[in-house]
Write a structure and sequence with these properties.
Mean pLDDT: 91
Helix content: over 70%
Largest sheet: none
Structural class: mainly alpha
Low-confidence stretches: none
Strand content: under 5%
Number of domains: 1
Number of helices: 3
Distance between the termini: 17 Å
């Protein structure tokens, strides 16, 4: 049961991260005053959405400079993948 809830959470948070990057991209292109802060993307990545945020950044080519955010999200995503593999093989 707990494993199913974890999978549902990871799907939700990764889709949410992808949507956030896409929404911020639209705000940036429309010269909107409102932008989503970088710390929001890092928080979503830390909550399990690292892969969704990273894929959105690469596919949509948004928030790839300066390098601090892409590097941080990549490290978080790799750690999440490694943890998932460890838990599955354990």
């Amino acid at each position: 049961m707990l494993e199913k809830l974890l999978i549902i959470w990871l799907i939700f948070i990764n889709v949410h991260g992808f949507i956030l990057i896409n929404r911020d991209r639209k705000y940036a292109s429309s010269d909107s005053v409102f932008r989503i802060p970088t710390r929001t993307f890092v928080c979503v990545a830390l909550l399990g959405g690292g892969l969704g945020v990273l894929l959105a950044m690469l596919i949509l080519r948004h928030r790839t400079t300066p390098r601090a955010l892409p590097i941080a999200v990549t490290i978080i995503a790799l750690l999440e993948i490694a943890l998932g593999i460890y838990l599955k093989l354990r």
